[in-house]
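Q: My labmate handed me this sequence with no annotations at all. I'd like to see what the chain might look like in three dimensions before we decide whether it's worth expressing. Could you predict it?
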Amino acid sequence: MNPVQLVESPIELSQWEKSLQDVDSGAHAWFAGVTRRKTKASDGQIRITATLHYEAHPTMAVKELQQLADQAKDKFGLLKVVIVHRLGEVPLGQASVLVGCCSAHRKDAFLALPWIMDRLKEDVPIWKRETYEDQQTEWIHP
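A: Here is what I predict for the chain of 142 residues:
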């Protein structure tokens, strides 16, 4: 299974856990970004989210995600990196992104996760449309 993927079905951690197995690994760390009910909208108001919808330029997004995984390995001494991002509609309570990494020691894995997520949100051509309970929508580059 390719450790960097865009998917259109629910992301289940159990499907990805084995991808980090490595006899030299002493630590596995995971982050799942999940659709929550309340969101601070661009106008500063707290809005009630009905659903999220993600779109991407698939070829460019996968290329950027792979580069990001490779950079994280180099920067933090990681053995393996998994990045899975969902496209299409993501209902409340479901994951839109899953990032995992393994390293010899826990500190490297713990430090890598926020760095990967920050870079993903800045650099990868994936866009999010929030639909609120009142049916208003807002496009966001996550």
